[in-house]
Model the fold of this input.
Amino acid sequence: MTTSFTPAKSSFKDLWHTYNGIFPGKAKYTEKQYPSFDGKVVIVTGASTGVGYEVVKSLAGSTNARIYAFARNPEKTKAAIKKIELEVAQEYKKSKIDVHFIEIDFSDLPSIKPAVEEFLKKEDRLDLIIHNAGVMTPPPGSVTKQGYELQLGTNNIGPHLLQRLLDPLFIKTSKTNKPGESRIVWVASTASFHAPLGAIHYADPNFKTTEASPMAIYGQSKAVSILQSRYWSKANPEATNVISSSLCPGFLKTELQRHVAGIQAVVINLMLHPRRNGAYTELFAAFSPAVKTGDYIESFGKIGKARYDLDEKAAKKAWEFLDKEIQPYL
Done:
């Protein structure tokens, strides 16, 4: 039996976010404003391509942090790190970078704990986590190895498990840092406006029997990312020094659009900006003193507002749903 879902109500805010995505203006918070981050440790997921690649390059070129690129493909990621080293030398005049690869597959939950264990063998602190990895509008019916709708699994359930496993070290580190120095950045999207009312279609979260547009299913995963950012501090009240925020990196030319074809691809491409601008959005969330916990950041580095119905009640419900799904893999 095919059912439908209740979408969020459209509002003027939807139009504003779209306008801002097409005409965002220039980034004002860039490398010159970043802290040196001496002795700090950073994790960036999805770091082999797109915005994640640019985030790692910007961090490697403009800070002294030790950076871990968490990604699925070893050959591709190691090649990306070598390319980043060459580009950093050319663009930032820095001869050596401190970037390391750890293999992880967010579409396969049993792969996540070994990745964390490998990281914990190497490090005794963690200061910044950027949940950048994601997939957008894959072919209909795409699922993770555990049978979750691919976007829900890759964009939310996998990162939720990673964060929960890293929390003990991350929170411990945060207590040694200045307030707001430890941060979690959850990459969401303006597409969250297409999601079901309340973010998740709980009757059928994997859309197995529910009729919905590809953008609505993608939007569900990005609305959940916003709720994860908002509820993390509620779930970890002892972590008073941490800022957890979410963002739309911008309308960008990245590999996320690889599944979009035809006239839609042509139209979308006309609205897109260079992917480096997305790194400026993410690193604004990571470093700017203007950011507070629970904030939603718009392209390319300014405080915005997310959907009206993504309140604390919705955040708690989504968090509990995700906690239940990851329980066998902790």
